[in-house]
Design a protein that fits this description.
Layout (H helix, E strand, L loop, with lengths): L8 H7 L4 H19 L6 H14 L5 H17 L4 H17 L6 H18 L7 H11 L5 H20 L9 H11 L5 H15 L10 H11 L5 H23 L18 H15 L12 H20 L1 H9 L7 H20 L5 H21 L10 H7 L5 H16 L6 H13 L5 H15 L2 H17 L1 H5 L1 H11 L2 H12 L5 H17 L4 H8 L9 H14 L3 H11 L2 H9 L8 H13 L6 H6 L7 H13 L4 H13 L6 H6 L1 H6 L5 H30 L1
Protein name: MHCK/EF2 kinase domain protein
GO molecular function, one term: kinase activity
Keywords: Kinase, Membrane, Repeat, Transferase
Length: 720
């Protein structure tokens, strides 16, 4: 027998022999020897300890046969211990560590023998081996990529055996904690080697298949890598990652959609619940992957990863939409939200909106289309939830920043969101609306489509009566200060009339314009308003009201005042004032304004506008006026007004056009008695006070002339 351990020399000789059969026989002998020691009435397990210690030490020999013999001996001891759980648990680490250490040997035969030995010990001890799972697993991760085929094959075989054991393990015993195993996987999953990736993905699928193991709790730690693996060059890895992701997403949706008939949203099994924090971590990973990098920043996520991530977000949002009714009920009854997935998603909605809008400007069409689906889905959810939780409105500051985005798709979509969110803003958020207002108005110089979207947002702000005068005033101020915005004034006004009550828009515009002294600003602006009033389809109702103003019975003073308010402002532009008079059939007033050109300057601008008016009179809008010329005795001031305009014009094309129209009427002069006695004049005498309107007009013109003279004098002084 050996002096250090009680093993017969014949067994030791066979154990250290070159002959494989002799070694195997010696291994069987050692198994029997261990069983005999442990089956005694008073087993001396110290002998087992000494044997393990001896053969571990012997592994340091430079003789390959001694090493192989020691590996065989350690393996045999491990196999023999399977019938003695107490000692197996006591010595499992002592048995496996030396074999693990020897896997660094340069000789592939030694590495293979160690893996083979570990496999046999693992197979024999089953779940007891889990006590040293960490060391074995970390070694396997390196050995599956070994240069030697036989070593790689042995590592794969051991890996499969470990999976089988883990699948059947009782985790309540604590030999292996899922948390520790997931730590190992998370640590290694960032590896670039395809074999290691494949191995770890296989472990994730294995663990997810075990009943009672809730892998969703650990998903945030490795979810990013799953998405990255979706774009791996290795097809097998891509497929494995896709299967994992699909399985986890289905599980998330299934758990989150489990409904309890008593409590609107709850989990059937609370032990399986994953909390709000876990869902938020998952959503954070998704947001990071779809995040548009800053200029100059590189991203590790390609289109495939982002597309799959967008799909996950879409599924989360669909779940939110499906439960919108319950969410509204919870908000109305001030109930605590029971579904952690929904709670987490609502908390992250502002950031999801932000990143989705950036994706709308992505270079890849497929990503843009997918992002648009998400965007439309979120807008539908907003409509259903009415933002009672206020979570959607938290996106407003980010949306404001996006207005300055150079990528128009993103900026335009930000405006759409602002328009929708403002619908649900309550009174205490009026300060925030004021902050938004100046930024919105500053965008009015942008493209026509951008202006239209800005006006949609402003339209929603304007629906609150408290904001109406303020917003109109701010728009006019912007037009006054910025020529680019002034150039867009036609689009701005038309959009306002399309969104809001045109009557209120014109009344307020007229009122706000009178606050400006600068005739060079007000007069052209009035001309724009006048042309819109005459031609825009959205103003048909207002046009008809003004046209028939003279004939309406029991007209309330407010309606008369509408004309007065508009006329006061139109007086800044003589031709627009005349046009308004023609529209309202206030021909005597029109005649008086025309005659006032004796006292005011008839400049080139006025002549141009008179020419435009003559052409306008030929349009369908003034067909009634042309027909009234057939009854010029009834409408004497109409004919006199047209004669007056003709006298103002130099002879030319426009002059000839008007002259030919008047010529068709024939001589239309009548005496004063005829003018006074006509029924039409009696009908209108209480509607429009012509003399008062003339006074208003002349005062405006005098003030405008004084303003121009003051400006001219000031400019002269500056030049001196």
């Amino acid at each position: 027998m050996n002096n250090e351990i009680e093993i017969p020399n014949s067994i030791m000789d066979n154990l250290m022999s070159k002959n494989n059969e002799k070694r195997n026989l010696a291994g069987k002998n050692i198994e029997d020897l261990i069983r005999q020691i442990l089956e005694k009435q008073n087993p001396q397990d110290s002998q087992v300890y000494k044997m393990i210690q001896y053969f571990t030490k012997n592994l340091g020999s430079t003789n390959i046969n001694d090493k192989r013999g020691s590996i065989k001996a350690i393996t045999s001891i491990g196999i023999a211990l399977k019938e003695h759980e107490k000692y197996a648990r006591q010595y499992v680490k002592m048995l496996t560590r030396p074999l693990i250490d020897q896997m660094q040997d340069n000789d592939s035969k030694i590495r293979f023998a160690c893996l083979e030995g570990l496999y046999h010990i693992t197979f024999a001890l089953q779940d007891i081996i889990l006590l040293n799972f960490k060391d074995i697993f970390e070694t396997l991760v390196t050995k599956v990529t070994d240069m030697d085929n036989s070593v790689r094959s042995a590592a794969t075989t051991l890996d499969n055996q470990l999976k089988t054991i883990v699948q059947a393990a009782d985790f309540q015993k604590g030999d292996l904690k899922i948390e520790e195993l997931m730590e190992l996987i998370n640590k290694k999953i960032v590896a670039q080697n395809p074999t290691i990736k494949s191995m770890l993905l296989s472990w994730i699928k294995t663990l997810d298949s075990i009943p009672g193991v809730n892998m969703l709790r650990y998903l945030p730690k490795f979810l990013e890598q799953l998405f990255l693996n979706m774009s791996d060059s290795n097809r097998e890895i891509r497929q494995s990652a896709e299967l994992c992701l699909r399985g986890f997403l289905e599980e998330i949706m299934q758990r989150s959609n489990t409904m309890d008939s008593q409590n609107n949203l709850s989990f059937a099994n609370e032990d399986d619940e994953i909390g709000r924090e876990t869902h938020e971590q998952i959503i954070n990973v998704l947001i990071e992957i779809i995040r548009t990098p800053n200029p100059g920043e590189k991203t590790k996520y390609n289109n495939i990863s982002q597309m799959n991530c967008v799909w996950w977000i879409h599924e989360y949002l669909q779940m939110l939409e499906q439960h919108s009714q319950y969410i509204v009920e919870e908000e109305e009854h001030k109930c605590e939200r029971q579904n952690p997935a929904i709670q987490a998603l609502l908390n992250k909605i502002p950031v999801i909106i932000q990143q989705t809008l950036y994706l709308l400007s992505n270079e890849q069409e497929e990503i843009r289309r997918s992002a648009d689906k998400i965007n439309q889905l979120m807008l539908r959810i907003l409509e259903k939830l009415k933002d009672k939780s206020g979570k959607f409105s938290e996106a407003m500051p980010m949306l404001q920043q996006m207005l300055d985005e150079k990528r128009e798709s993103t900026a335009q979509s930000a405006l759409v969101w602002m328009r929708q969110l403002i619908k649900y803003y309550n009174k205490n958020k009026s300060a925030q609306i004021n902050q938004v207002l100046s930024q919105l108005i500053a965008k009015l110089y942008d493209s026509d489509s951008m202006v239209e979207n800005v006006m949609e947002v402003l339209g929603n702000i304007l629906k609150d009566k408290e904001n109406f005068d303020l917003v109109i005033g701010q728009i006019l101020k912007a037009c006054f200060q910025n020529q680019k915005i002034l150039n867009k004034s036609d689009i701005i006004i038309k959009q306002l009339c399309n969104i809001l009550n045109p009557e209120l828009v014109f009344k307020t515009m007229a009122s706000e314009l009178r606050k400006y002294d600068d005739i060079n600003f007000v007069s052209p602006f009035v001309r724009s308003l006048d042309l819109i009033l005459l031609t825009d389809s959205d103003l048909k109702e207002l046009r008809n009201f003004l046209k028939n103003l003279q004939f309406q019975k029991n007209l309330v003073p407010e309606k008369i005042q509408l004309f007065v308010d508009i006329f006061k402002t139109w007086s800044y532009n003589p031709v627009s004032a005349i046009t308004l008079c023609f529209l309202t059939q206030a021909y005597e007033l029109a005649y008086n304004i025309i005659m006032s050109f004796c006292e005011i300057e008839l400049n080139k601008s006025n002549l141009t506008q008179i020419c435009e008016l003559i052409y306008l009179l030929e349009k369908p809008i003034f067909v009634y006026l042309r027909l009234q010329l057939l009854e010029h005795e009834k409408y004497p001031y109409l004919l006199k007004s047209l004669h007056g305009l003709m006298m103002l014009l130099p002879q030319g094309e426009t002059y000839n056009l008007l002259a030919s129209r008047i010529k068709l009427v024939g001589q239309g002069s009548t005496d004063q008695q005829t003018m006074v006695s006509q029924p039409w004049d009696k009908l209108i005498e209480n509607k429009i006070d012509t003399s008062k309107m003339v006074e208003i007009y002349l005062k405006v013109q005098i003030d405008a002339r004084i303003y121009k003279e003051n400006i001219e004098n000031l400019n002269k002084l500056k030049k001196q």
